[in-house]
Amino acid sequence: MKGILRIGSRTILLHIVAAVVVGLVISYAVISVPESPNLHSEKGILDLKQVHVSENPLNLKGEWAFYWQELLSPEDIQNRLAKDGNRDRWISIPSSWLGYRLDGQQLSGTGFATFRVVIELSEQDKNERLALRLPTIFHAYKLWVNGELLAEVGEVGQDKSSVTPLLATKLVFFQPEHERVELVMQVANFHHKRGGITKYIEIGGSDVLTVRRNLDIAAEVFITASLLVIGAYHLLLFILRRKDKAPLYFGLFTMLSGIRSLLVGELLLTQLWPSFPWGLQFKIEYLILCSIGYIMTMYFDSVFPNYVSRWFHLGTRIVTGAFCIVVVVTPALLYTKMLLMIGVIVVLHMVYLMVGLGLAALRRMEGALIFLLASVVALVTVINDFLYYNEWSRIGNTSPLGLLVFSIAQMILLSSRFTRAASNEERIARELQDSNDKLTEMNMNLERIVQERTHALSAAHDDLRTSYDQLLQSEQGRKKLLAYITHDLRLPLSSMLGYVEAVQDMVKPERNKQYLAYIRDNTIRINRMIEELSFLSHLETGQVSYRMKPVHTGRFLRRFYEQYELVVRDAGLHFKLDIGETEDQGPEMPVVEMDAQRLEQALFNLVSNAMKFTSSGGVVRISLAVDEVDHTRFAIISVQDSGMGIPPEQLEQIFDRNYRYDRPGMDKGVEGSGLGLAICREIVHAHGGTVRAESDGQTGTTFYVSLPCVREEGG
Questions:
Q1: How far is CA 308 from CA 364, 422, 465, in A?
Q2: Which percentage of the chain shows pLDDT scores above 70?
Q3: Which of 103, 557, 568, 630 is most open to solvent, judged by the fewest CB atoms within 10 Å of its CB?
Q4: H/E element, 593
Q5: What's the DSSP call for residue 586?
Q6: β-bridge partners, 706
Q7: DSSP 3-state helix, strand, coil percentages of the chain (rounded to 5)?
Q8: 3-class SS string, 628-669
Q9: 92 bridge partner residues
Q10: What's the pTM?
Q11: 3-state class of 698 per DSSP?
Q12: pLDDT per residue over 390-434, tens digit each?
């Protein structure tokens, strides 16, 4: 079976829900059928001589004596009858005294009165133990049976301050001593719109009524517990998965319905908690009635989106909020007068939603049909309860049962959605498992081929990765070189173009030879700059390869000194080497992992820089020292000149590309490119070292190259 709400199962669900609806209608008809014989009291006397009420309980109805604005005890009534005779007025029970015509005027719902009826029992019942099943009576009362006070609910008084309202159902027992039973009841109401005996009082055998009351309580406990459990379950579902709000609104709906069922019927709440405040009890019940329609609308909209219009959303929110505010801020005497309006609003909500459900069912929306049929059940029971509380129906408290049927149907609807989602996940998991099994079988057959191909693919991948890295480095180097050339060659080329145009236009023919010499020098400078820019871009993008091996630093500096000694001396400078005794230190002599050719290029850039900015007769000194930082030995190579130095504030900038510092009076011919120190820094960093400069700006500059040492000797 694909799912409980799919097309193949809709016929079954239709029959089930239709059976429930028909059953409710039949139950309503059966309960509404008058008892046979149709017994009712006339002028305060109920003749039950032909009925055995101890076995067949009977609802008391008919005319009772009515004493308005009087609280009379049985003795007071007997004295009045003995003195004035029977001049009583009569009122039909069950009904409220609201609207009762007395002396040409209609009574209001508030006030107090005494009721009296005499019951004539059969010979069989006069020795039986009987009971009276008392419903909720608005809103305080006392009951005497044959002059004995058997029940008192709340406190009866003649004004609002002396009356204590209370709602409770009771079962009182009595043993008649003769065939005549007198019931006298004082009732006071100053807190509700209607007062009096508005529901049936039932008389019968104590055992029969006790069993019937216990069954009613058990049924209400079952319905209430079911609603509360269903509500709590769906609220928990929403907490665990908040994306779908349908369980939230359905959980609120069933939870509130369960709470309301505690406040009606047998009043389970007051039986469990007798001291629960009456005013709060009524406010909770009316707040639930006011908000239940809005919650139903939100639930419907979450299950079937786009079927509730914006104006209805806005209207129901405003109306619900207004009613709830009135209930909260006004006393029960005022907001209970809105019961009919509240009922109309709730019914309109349900009718509007049922129209939307009808449209959804016609469009074959999944679950719409069961939603519609369950709503019919709930609507019938809710309408009956509102009619009952307005004294237009005698079947009371049917809405909890109808709401339970509705909740079970909705629970099936929501459960089917979760079940369908789980089934889809299981189906997908099975399909994935089947696919995985097939792939496993294919892998077993192709394992050998895959292994063979893997080695080939791995080798090809390594080659491709190497080629890609080389290409990427080359591209990065090309971009940097292009950027460098664009930036650094624009000025000299523009200058040369100006001199070429000056020669071409014969601006100053006598200076043409000087212009041509300038153009030649700049051409040489540009060629050298292009070579240095290219090399720097390769350094920065990692395209320069290094052949690293352990080299003894002292021997390396000795060879460097011997190679460039004549170059420095030909420039008119003294070249000195100070490496101390590092060549004779044995195992302690500093050994550095280096590419000797690249490091030699870096040191020559430093020496060349010193030669360029040191006056004739000056000194260029190379020194070697060893230092230890954090248990790591470093070889410190320093290049010191006796030039004019560099301002201290510019020492951080001299290793930047294109940095040049023009010193007054220093004329070295061709101007430097400003790339030597940048190239030096890149080479030293590639060796894991650092380079820095020190100068006071007056007595020369010293460059320090720090390189980490290794333990083994090389060179």
A1: 17, 29, 60
A2: 71
A3: 630
A4: strand 591-594
A5: G
A6: 636, 690
A7: 55, 20, 30
A8: EECCEEEEEEEEEECCCCCCHHHCCCCCCCCCCCCCCCCCCC
A9: 63
A10: 0.53
A11: coil
A12: 555 556 566 666 666 666 666 666 666 667 766 777 788 888 888
